């Protein structure tokens, strides 16, 4: 399920009650039972959920391991058993969310053999990602730890893998060189990412699906102008640069 994140991440309040991050369980409601034993994968997922809420709400530097442990309903020793430091916890969360984005883009590209549909699906994947509950996109696109090499390399790596997947599709369908295809792919995925982030920040009545359609139309009008390769090796101009029907609102 996705939600509209355009109100932005919550900011620390002066009142005693901790503000909540949209889509994540408030710390004072249905809190985990302290001492409850969970399988290791389930415990890890629980800790990452709590960490995401803390990092999105407060940023890396202001988030405290004490707070994360409290949100998860565990003791600090339990938290440190899974993640020996705050940085390792942050990197593990970043790896998970980066993998989600790469998988979403790859799935979008594989969803159709029609190039226009693939472009629209890929753009939509970025809008879907920023609309996910918990504002996980802020960890990838708005990290306050970007100057840390271990963080920047992970973020750059995820964005590059998305671009590479798109470049493979472009090169296969146009006989364009891989280097040229990569330039186009990074431009298109970069546009989708920035457009989705700005849509999330804007106070606009334009819904997610319509915003994705508009950006997808812009992307296709550019990419659709490149000749498409045929099975016999010939190149023909892509004929369809017209309007694309708006996808159903979710």
Describe the structure.
With 250 residues, the chain is mostly helical. It has 2 domains: 77 residues, Homeodomain-like (Arc Repressor Mutant, subunit A), CATH 1.10.10; 144 residues, Tetracycline Repressor, domain 2. 58% of the residues lie in helices and 2% in strands. It contains 9 helices and 2 strands. The protein has a two-stranded antiparallel ribbon with strand order 1-2. Strand 1 and strand 2 form a beta hairpin. About 14% of the residues have low confidence.
Main beta-sheet annotation:
2 strands, antiparallel
Low-confidence segments, ≥5 residues, pLDDT <50? Answer: 7-31, 233-242
Give the overall pLDDT as a whole number: 82
Name of the CATH superfamily of the largest domain: Tetracycline Repressor, domain 2
Radius of gyration, in Å, reads: 21 Å
Strand content bin: under 5%
| Arrangement of strands in the largest sheet | 1-2
SSE order, one letter for each helix or strand: HHHHHHHHHEE
| CATH 2nd-level architecture of the largest domain | Orthogonal Bundle
**DSSP, total strands:** 2
Based on Cα principal axes, name the global outline. elongated
CATH topology of the largest domain: Tetracycline Repressor, domain 2
């Amino acid at each position: 399920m996705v939600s509209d994140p355009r109100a932005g991440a919550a900011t620390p309040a002066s009142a005693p009650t901790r503000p909540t991050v949209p889509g994540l369980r408030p710390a004072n409601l249905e809190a985990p039972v302290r001492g409850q034993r969970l399988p290791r994968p389930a415990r890890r997922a629980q800790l990452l959920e709590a960490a995401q809420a803390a990092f999105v709400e407060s940023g890396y530097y202001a988030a405290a391991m004490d707070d994360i442990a409290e949100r998860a309903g565990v003791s600090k020793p339990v938290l440190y058993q899974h993640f020996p430091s705050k940085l390792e916890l942050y990197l593990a969360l970043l790896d998970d969310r980066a993998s989600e984005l790469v998988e979403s883009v790859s799935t979008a590209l594989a969803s159709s053999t029609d190039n226009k549909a693939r472009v629209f699906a890929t753009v939509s994947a970025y809008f879907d990602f920023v609309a996910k509950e918990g504002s996980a996109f802020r960890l990838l696109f708005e990290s306050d730890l970007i100057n840390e090499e271990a963080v920047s390399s992970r973020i750059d790596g995820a964005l590059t893998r998305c671009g590479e997947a798109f470049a493979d599709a472009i090169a296969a369908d146009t006989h364009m060189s891989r280097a040229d295809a990569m330039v186009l792919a990074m431009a298109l995925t970069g546009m989708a990412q920035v457009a989705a982030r700005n849509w999330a920040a804007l106070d606009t009545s334009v819904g997610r699906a319509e915003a994705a359609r508009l950006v997808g139309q812009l992307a296709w009008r550019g990419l659709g102008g490149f000749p498409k390769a045929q099975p016999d090796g010939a190149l023909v101009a892509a004929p369809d640069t017209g309007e694309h029907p708006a996808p159903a609102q979710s």
